[in-house]
C-alpha cells in the first residue's frame, strides 16, 4: 500500500479550506445586483387562503416585488413531484396531491410558503413580509398519521380518502400466517420510530440568476444531486429546458438526505430571477430549516416474530403507518417501502416475511429520506424483536442471533434482496471480544454498588447500499436509473481531473477518489483533482446518498481509468516503437515486456496531446475517457454494534459508557474517513435514541422548533467509540466496496434501546429515551439483576 | 431584527437618564437573552442603552461577610473569581454551569436576574442565599425580587447595580440540565448561615424560582441529606412540557436537593 493509495489514512484535502473558513457555500456566492427572497409562511397547519393583499408590502422600502402562488400558476410553473411510483395492494397508483411551490388556495402545514418578497436586503424583505396580509380560514389539523386515517379526520387534499397515499405490501401473507400458526413462541412489539429534524450545519440556500442575452438560468443550491435537481426543475416543474438551466451545488455543509430533494424555494428563486431580471438569493434561517427541511422517520409499527422451540425464527410480520407529512417530497414514497420492508430479514435466515405499509398525509412538514432512510426503521424493528425474543426465551441475545444468521451466500430473502457476501458471526464475535461482553456481569454488579443500573444492547444490522442497479430500481417504481458517471481528463503535463456525478457534502470525495486515481495511475496524490457539483462541467450524474459514491461512483472511475490505461498503452506503443500487446503498465510506468524501454505516465500523457508519434488515422489524439457504471446488485454492509449504558436510578439519566462497532464495509479506501463516518452515524443514531424528537402540538405547531427544544447530541454525550472492521468484498463492484455512510445511524438506535431496556427490565420504552422517559419506565418496572 | 438607536452611557446616572427619555428603550448587558429575541423579531426596542462602558458595576468583591458582584460581571469572571472560589465555591459553581464559553464570556449576572428566565441558574442562587439586589434606587431582598416567570420587582427604568450575597459556610448547587438548552431543567440551591436555612428551586416551578419550606423545616434539625430522605413536593404547580412532566420535575427537586446537601456538607 502506498502512503496515499487505497487503504491509507490520508488526511482530507478539503479540510484546509473548510477549517480556515475558505469554503465556498451557496450563501458565499455573490452575484452583481443580487436581491434577497423572504418567504411569507403560513402560521397555521391547515387553512384555506381567503385572500392575499400584497399592496402594503410592495410599497415598503427596498421592495422589488411581492409574488404569490396565483402568479406562479399564471406563469405555468409546475408542481413539485415525487419521483418514485408505488402501487397499492389493489394495484392502484399512489395518490400524489399537487405541491405548488407557493400555496395559492390552501396551506397544509405550518411553514407552507404563500408569498415571497423580493427586496434589496434581507432586513427590508422581512419588514415587508410582515406587511403581506393573508386572510386565512383556519381548519382543524391532524398530525398523527393513525388519526389522519380515521373516519372524520380533517381532509388534507381533496379526493384523497382517509388521507391515505397508498396501502402497500410486500411478501407472502398466507405463508407468513401459516408460519405464525405453527410457532412455539411469538414476540410482539409496538414501535414508534420518532420523527427527526435533519439539522445539517449549513442551512439550505438557493441563488438564481437569469441571463437575458442567452436565455440561460443558473441555480446555485445546496444539493446532494444537482443533475437530478436540474432534471426535475426542467422536465416536471417546466422552469426551462434542461440545456438552458445550469445547476451548481458548490461546497455543501452536510445533507443527511435532506438536500437530495427539490424544494419550493429554489423553484421560486429561479422563477423570480427571470421575472425580475435580477439575481435572487434565499438562505434559510434555522427556524425555517426546522419547519421546511424534509424530516425523517416517523413510523408507527406493530411487529411480530414467530419462533420454533429451538429459537429458530420462522417468520416476521409488520404493519407500519408512515407519516409523509403535508406533501409527497421527491423520494418520500420509496423510503417506507422499498428501502424499509426489503431489509426486514436483517442478518437472519427468515423463511417468511410479510409487511404492510400505509403512507399517510398529515398537517406536518414533508418526510423523506434521512441518513439510512428506511433501513434504520427496519433495523430497529428486527433488532428489537430479536433481542426481546431472546429475553423472553431466556437465551443469550448473541446465541439467538447466531442460531439464525444467514451463513451461506448468495442468500435470497423473502423480501426481494439477495445478499451476496458477508460473515455476520465474524463481526459479532469480534465486537463481543472488543466490548468484553464476558466481563459485563461484573461491571453491572460494580455499577449497582454506586446506585447505577447497567445494560448491554446489541444491534446486528444490515443495510442495502450502493444504490443501485437501474433495472432493479426501475422495476420497483423509481423514476430514474441509479448508475453513476465518471470522466477522467488527463492533462498534457500528466495531472488528472476526475469529473464525477457524485456530490460531496462532507464525505471527503476529493481525498478518497484521488487516492484511487493516484494508486491506479501511479501518479502523486496531489496531481489529482476531483470536480463535481456543476451540471456544466459534469455531463450527468445521480448524486450522493445511500452510501453509493464509493460502490457506484468510484466504480465508474475505475471503468474510465481502464479506458485511460488502454488508450495510454496505444500511445506508449507508438512512443516506444513496440506492439501494443507488449506494453505493460505498473506504478506509473509503461514498459515493453522483455526490454528496458520505458515511458513515464506524464510522458505518455504529453505524447497523447502533441501527437507527434502517430498519425490521426492511426490514433485519435488526447487522453480523456468517460464511463457510466451501473452496478449488478445492491451492496450489503453489515456489522454488530454493542452499547453499554449506565442509568442513574434516581434521575433516569443514561450515560453511554462503552460503544463497540464492528462493521464489514468491504474494501476500505481511507480508514480514517470511514471511522469518521461511523462516528458521525453513531452520534446521529444515539441522538435519535436518547434525545431527538420533532414534536407537533395537536394544532400542528412544531413545539420542538429550535435548538432550545430540539435536543441535538453533543460531544460530551458520547464516549470514545471502539471501532473495528471485518471484511468480505462486495462481489457486485470492481473495488469490492460496500459503503459506510449510514451504518452508524442504522445500527445504533436499536443498540441503545436494547441496552436501556436490558438495564431497566421493561420493554415499554419509546424513543427518544430521555431521562424523564426512562425514569417513568422505571416506576413501572423491576430492574434486572446482575447474573 | 428591527432598527434601533444605540446609546453607550458611561455612568449609571446617564443610563437612567436615557431610559427616562426613551420610554421604548431597553438596557443591554451581555445581550445573550435580549439579542436572540430581537433577532427573532419578538422584541423591538426603539433604543438600546448599553451598560458595557458604565463604570463601577463590574467585579467581585468581598465586603465583610458579604460578596458583592457588580451587575455587569460576566458569568466567566464570577465562576473564576479567586475570592469567591475561596469563600463560597458553591456560588462560583452557578455561573460555571451556564451555557457554553461564548455565553459565559458575554452574559452577566445583572442581565440574568433582570430577565428571570424560569430555567435560569442565578435566581436559585439569589434566593437560596438570601441575596440583596441593589439598584440605582433601592435595595431589594431576593425574596421580594423574583415575582414570576420573566417578571421581577424592578420598576420602569430601574437599573441593577450590584448583587450582594451573604457568605454562607455551607452551600451547594445541583443542576439537572435541560437536555436541549442546557439551562436548568431543575436546579436546587441549598445553604445554611447560622439559623437561616434555605432551599431554592429553579426550573421546576410554573411561576419561576421558589423556596421549599417543608425541606427547610426538616433541615433545621440537622442540615444533612438524611433529614429530607423520602421527602417530596407535590407535582401541582410544577412546570410540564415536552422535556419533563410535572411529576418528574417534582421528583427531581427532592433528588437534587439531597445531592446539593451532599455537596454543601462535604
Ligand atoms: C446558548 C445560551 C445558553 C444559555 N444557557 C444558560 C444557562 O444554562 N443558564 C442560565 O441561567 N442562563 C443561560 N443563558 C442565558 C444567559 O445566561 C444570559 O446571558 C442571561 O440570561 C442574560 O444576561 P445578559 O447579560 O446576556 O443580558 P441581556 O440579554 O443583555 O439582557 C437581558 C434582560 O435584562 C435586562 N437587563 C440587563 N442588565 C440589566 C441591569 N443591570 N438592570 C436591569 N435590567 C437589566 C435587559 O434589558 C434585558 O431585558 C443562555 C443563553 C444562551 C444564548
CATH architecture of the largest domain in chain A: Alpha-Beta Complex
What is the strand content of chain A? 15-25%
How widely separated are the two ends of chain A? 47 Å
CATH fold-level label of the largest domain in chain A: Aldehyde Oxidoreductase, domain 3
Tally of helical segments of chain A = 20
Count the E strands of chain A: 28
Main sheet properties of chain B: 5 strands, antiparallel
Largest interface: A-B, 25 and 16 residues
Give unreliable regions of chain B as ranges: none
Spatial extent as radius of gyration of chain A: 27 Å
CATH class of the largest domain in chain B: Alpha Beta
Could you please describe the fold and organization of this structure?
The complex is a heterodimer of chains A (787) and B (266). Chain A has 787 residues and is of the alpha+beta class. In chain A, a hairpin with a 5-residue loop joins strand 13 and strand 14. Chain A starts with 14 loop residues before the first helix and ends in a 7-residue tail after the last helix. With 266 residues, chain B is of the alpha+beta class. In chain B, 33% of the residues lie in helices and 25% in strands. Chain B has eleven helices and 14 strands. A five-stranded antiparallel β-sheet of chain B has the order 4-5-10-6-7. A four-stranded antiparallel β-sheet of chain B has the order 11-12-13-14, sandwiched between helices. Chain B has a three-stranded parallel β-sheet with strand order 1-3-2, covered by helices on one side. The relative contact order of chain B is 0.12. Classes of the chains: A alpha+beta (787), B alpha+beta (266). At the A-B interface, helix 4 and helix 20 of A face helix 11 of B. The structure holds flavin-adenine dinucleotide. Flavin-adenine dinucleotide (FAD) binds next to strand 2, helix 2, helix 6 and helix 7 of chain B.
Amino acid at each position: 500500500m502506498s502512503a496515499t493509495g487505497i487503504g491509507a489514512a490520508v488526511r482530507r484535502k478539503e479540510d484546509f479550506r473548510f477549517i480556515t473558513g475558505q469554503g465556498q457555500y451557496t450563501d458565499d456566492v455573490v452575484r452583481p445586483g443580487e436581491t434577497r427572497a423572504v418567504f411569507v409562511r403560513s402560521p397555521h397547519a391547515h387553512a384555506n387562503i381567503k385572500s392575499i393583499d400584497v399592496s402594503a408590502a410592495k410599497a415598503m422600502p427596498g421592495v422589488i416585488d411581492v409574488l404569490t402562488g396565483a402568479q406562479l400558476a399564471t406563469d405555468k410553473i409546475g408542481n413539485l413531484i415525487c419521483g418514485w411510483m408505488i402501487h397499492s395492494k389493489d394495484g392502484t397508483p399512489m395518490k400524489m396531491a399537487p405541491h405548488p411551490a407557493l400555496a395559492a388556495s390552501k396551506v397544509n402545514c405550518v411553514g407552507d410558503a404563500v408569498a415571497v418578497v423580493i427586496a434589496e436586503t434581507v432586513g427590508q424583505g422581512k419588514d415587508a413580509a410582515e406587511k403581506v396580509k393573508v386572510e386565512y380560514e383556519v381548519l382543524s389539523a391532524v398530525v398523527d398519521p393513525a388519526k389522519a386515517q380515521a373516519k372524520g379526520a380533517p381532509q388534507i387534499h381533496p379526493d384523497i380518502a382517509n388521507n391515505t397515499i397508498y396501502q402497500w405490501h410486500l411478501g407472502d401473507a398466507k405463508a407468513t400466517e401459516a408460519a405464525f400458526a405453527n410457532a412455539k413462541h411469538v414476540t410482539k412489539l409496538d414501535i414508534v420510530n420518532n420523527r427527526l429534524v435533519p439539522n445539517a450545519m449549513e442551512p439550505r440556500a438557493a441563488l438564481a440568476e437569469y441571463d437575458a442575452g442567452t436565455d440561460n438560468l443558473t441555480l446555485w443550491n445546496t444539493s446532494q444531486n444537482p443533475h437530478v435537481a436540474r432534471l426535475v426543475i426542467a422536465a416536471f416543474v417546466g422552469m426551462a429546458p434542461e440545456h438552458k438551466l445550469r445547476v451548481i451545488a458548490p461546497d455543501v455543509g452536510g445533507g443527511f438526505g435532506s438536500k437530495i430533494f427539490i424544494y419550493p424555494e429554489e423553484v421560486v428563486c429561479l422563477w423570480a430571477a427571470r421575472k425580475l431580471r435580477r439575481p435572487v438569493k434565499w438562505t434559510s434561517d434555522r427556524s425555517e430549516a426546522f419547519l421546511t427541511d424534509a424530516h425523517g422517520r416517523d413510523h408507527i409499527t406493530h411487529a411480530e416474530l414467530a419462533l420454533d422451540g429451538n429459537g429458530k425464527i420462522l417468520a416476521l410480520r409488520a404493519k407500519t403507518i408512515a407519516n409523509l407529512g403535508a406533501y409527497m417530497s421527491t423520494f418520500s414514497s420509496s423510503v417506507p417501502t422499498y428501502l424499509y420492508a426489503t431489509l426486514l430479514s436483517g442478518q437472519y435466515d427468515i423463511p417468511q416475511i410479510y409487511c404492510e405499509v400505509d403512507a399517510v398525509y398529515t398537517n406536518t412538514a414533508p418526510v423523506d429520506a434521512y441518513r439510512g432512510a428506511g433501513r434504520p426503521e427496519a433495523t430497529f424493528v428486527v433488532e428489537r424483536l430479536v433481542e426481546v425474543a431472546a429475553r423472553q426465551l431466556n437465551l443469550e441475545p448473541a446465541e439467538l442471533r447466531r442460531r439464525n444468521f444467514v451463513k451461506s451466500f448468495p442468500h435470497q430473502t423473502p423480501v426481494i434482496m439477495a445478499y451476496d457476501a458477508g460473515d455476520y458471526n465474524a463481526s459479532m464475535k469480534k465486537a463481543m471480544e472488543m466490548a468484553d461482553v464476558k466481563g459485563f456481569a461484573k461491571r453491572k454488579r460494580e455499577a449497582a454498588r454506586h446506585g447505577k443500573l447497567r445494560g448491554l444492547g446489541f444491534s446486528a444490522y444490515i443495510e442495502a447500499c450502493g444504490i443501485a442497479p437501474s433495472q432493479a430500481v426501475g422495476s420497483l417504481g423509481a423514476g430514474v436509473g441509479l448508475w453513476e458517471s465518471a470522466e477522467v481528463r488527463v492533462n498534457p503535463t500528466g495531472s488528472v481531473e476526475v469529473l464525477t456525478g457524485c456530490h460531496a457534502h462532507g464525505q471527503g470525495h476529493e481525498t478518497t477518489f484521488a487516492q484511487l486515481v493516484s494508486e491506479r495511475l501511479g501518479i502523486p496524490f496531489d496531481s489529482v483533482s476531483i470536480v463535481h457539483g456543476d451540471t456544466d462541467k459534469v455531463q450527468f450524474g445521480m448524486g450522493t446518498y445511500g452510501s453509493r459514491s464509493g460502490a457506484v461512483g468510484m466504480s465508474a472511475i475505475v471503468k474510465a481509468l481502464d479506458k485511460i490505461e488502454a488508450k495510454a498503452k496505444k500511445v506508449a506503443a507508438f512512443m516506444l516503437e513496440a506492439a501494443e500487446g507488449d506494453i505493460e503498465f505498473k506504478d506509473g510506468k509503461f514498459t515493453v515486456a522483455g526490454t528496458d524501454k520505458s515511458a513515464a505516465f506524464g510522458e505518455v500523457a504529453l505524447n497523447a496531446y502533441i501527437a507527434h508519434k502517430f498519425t490521426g488515422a492511426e490514433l485519435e489524439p488526447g487522453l480523456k475517457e468517460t464511463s457510466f457504471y451501473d452496478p449488478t446488485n445492491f451492496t450489503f454492509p453489515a456489522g454488530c454494534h454493542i452499547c453499554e449504558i449506565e442509568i442513574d436510578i434516581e434521575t433516569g439519566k443514561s450515560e453511554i459508557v462503552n460503544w463497540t462497532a464492528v462493521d464489514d464495509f468491504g474494501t476500505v479506501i481511507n480508514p480514517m474517513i470511514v471511522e469518521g463516518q461511523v462516528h458521525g452515524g453513531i452520534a446521529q443514531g444515539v441522538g435519535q435514541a436518547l434525545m431527538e424528537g420533532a414534536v407537533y402540538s395537536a394544532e400542528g405547531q412544531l413545539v420542538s422548533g429550535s435548538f432550545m427544544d430540539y435536543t441535538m447530541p453533543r460531544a460530551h454525550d458520547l464516549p470514545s467509540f471502539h471501532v473495528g472492521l471485518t471484511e468480505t468484498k462486495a462481489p457486485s463492484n470492481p473495488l469490492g466496496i460496500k459503503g459506510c455512510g449510514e451504518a452508524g445511524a442504522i445500527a445504533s438506535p436499536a443498540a441503545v434501546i436494547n441496552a436501556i431496556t436490558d438495564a431497566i427490565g421493561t420493554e415499554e420504552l419509546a424513543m427518544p429515551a430521555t431521562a424523564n422517559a426512562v425514569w417513568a419506565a422505571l416506576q413501572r418496572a423491576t430492574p434486572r439483576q446482575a447474573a | 431584527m428591527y432598527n434601533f438607536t444605540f446609546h453607550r452611557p458611561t455612568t449609571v446616572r446617564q443610563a437612567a437618564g436615557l431610559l427616562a427619555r426613551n420610554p421604548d428603550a431597553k438596557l443591554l448587558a451581555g445581550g445573550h437573552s435580549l439579542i436572540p429575541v430581537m433577532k427573532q423579531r419578538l422584541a423591538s426596542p426603539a433604543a438600546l442603552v448599553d451598560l458595557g462602558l458604565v463604570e463601577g458595576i463590574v467585579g467581585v468583591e468581598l465586603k465583610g461577610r458579604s460578596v458583592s458582584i457588580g451587575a455587569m460581571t460576566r458569568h466567566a469572571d464570577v465562576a473564576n473569581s479567586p475570592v469567591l472560589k475561596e469563600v463560597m465555591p458553591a456560588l462560583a459553581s452557578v455561573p460555571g454551569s451556564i451555557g457554553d464559553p461564548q455565553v459565559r464570556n458575554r452574559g452577566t449576572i445583572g442581565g440574568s436576574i433582570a430577565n428571570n428566565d424560569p430555567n435560569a441558574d442565578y435566581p436559585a442562587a439569589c434566593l437560596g442565599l438570601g441575596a440583596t439586589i441593589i439598584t440605582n434606587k433601592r435595595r431589594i431582598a431576593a425574596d421580594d425580587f423574583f415575582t414570576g416567570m420573566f417578571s421581577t420587582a424592578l420598576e420602569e427604568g430601574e437599573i441593577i447595580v450590584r448583587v450582594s450575597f451573604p457568605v454562607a459556610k455551607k452551600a451547594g448547587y445541583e443542576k439537572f440540565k435541560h437536555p436541549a438548552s442546557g439551562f436548568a431543567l431543575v436546579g436546587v440551591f441549598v445553604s445554611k448561615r447560622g439559623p437561616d436555612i434555605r432551599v431554592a428551586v429553579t426550573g421546576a416551578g410554573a411561576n419561576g424560582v421558589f423556596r421549599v419550606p417543608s425541606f427547610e423545616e426538616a433541615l433545621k434539625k440537622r442540615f444533612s441529606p438524611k433529614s429530607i430522605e423520602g421527602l417530596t413536593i407535590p407535582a401541582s404547580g410544577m412546570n410540564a412540557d415536552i422535556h419533563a412532566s410535572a411529576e418528574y420535575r417534582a421528583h427531581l427537586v427532592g433528588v437534587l436537593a439531597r445531592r446539593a446537601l451532599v455537596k454543601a456538607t462535604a
